[in-house]
Amino acid sequence: MATSFSSTTPLRSIFQNLPVVPKALLSAHSSFTIKRSSTYVTLKLSGSGRHSLSKGLLTLHTRKGFVRAATIEEIEAEKASIENDVKSRMERTLDNVKTNFSSIRTGRATPSMLDKIEVEYYGSPVSLKTIAQISTPDASSLLVSPYDKSSLKAIEKAIVNSDVGMTPNNDGEVIRLSIPQLTSDRRKELTKIVSKQVEEGKVALRNIRRDALKAYEKLEKDKKLSEDNVKDLSSDLQKLTDDYIKKVDALYKQKEKELLTV
């Protein structure tokens, strides 16, 4: 939105809200005349040459030449890039928390219990779910049907070496897993594990916020953002971080309820 100024408006007031404020302008005389057209405003200052603001591009004309500042479009693109990176990384952090939660059994069989298991398959570690179909015949058992029967031994070994707490039964065709009932002590132990994963998720979110703040501060240092701009962006960033922390807390409450429900 365009802003109108009168010929008596102090020069500092005109430029203080611009993304870049050349020191030469702030120290210039406040006496000036304004020449307007549809796309630019030219300010003529007493003994200071000419200063033009054209389509968001600030150009300072002096006897020694001119200095080109970043356009508003360029600055907005940098801000958008930082914001998109923040949201993308926070979403991935939330997804990671969900994945970690899904691998912790709650007494009821779900294929996601085996999501974190990797199998040594032809010399390379691969996710179990990529080389086998995992189903739940009933609420207390899992059935692992490998696409390649020769991988049965490797799958069995991977399950035994994992922390899922289940003993595989290999009949030469499929692997069956029985879900043991959780004891009270085991439920409390799993709740502590989930709580730790929640804290790790929150730390990750705060680290993302820290990285974004550093990026904004660099733009301020490069004179592309004003101090007020950075304060506003920091406030928005804190609100976004708080929102994701609330989402993590909601996931924790749901998982905790599942673990403690007998």
UniProtKB/TrEMBL annotation:
Keywords: Chloroplast, Coiled coil, Plastid, Protein biosynthesis, Transit peptide. It comes from Medicago truncatula (Barrel medic). This is Ribosome-recycling factor, chloroplastic. Residues 98-260 form the Ribosome recycling factor domain. The keyword Chloroplast applies. Pfam families: RRF. Responsible for the release of ribosomes from messenger RNA at the termination of chloroplastic protein biosynthesis. InterPro entries: Ribosome_recyc_fac (IPR002661), Ribosome_recyc_fac_dom (IPR023584), RRF_sf (IPR036191). It is found in: Plastid, Chloroplast. PANTHER family: MITOCHONDRIAL RIBOSOME RECYCLING FACTOR PSEUDO 1, RIBOSOME RECYCLING FACTOR. GO terms for cellular component: chloroplast. Residues 202-243 form a coiled coil. Gene3D superfamilies: 3.30.1360.40, Ribosome-recycling factor. The keyword Chloroplast applies. GO terms for biological process: translation. It comes from the Eukaryota. Belongs to the RRF family. Its main location: plastid.
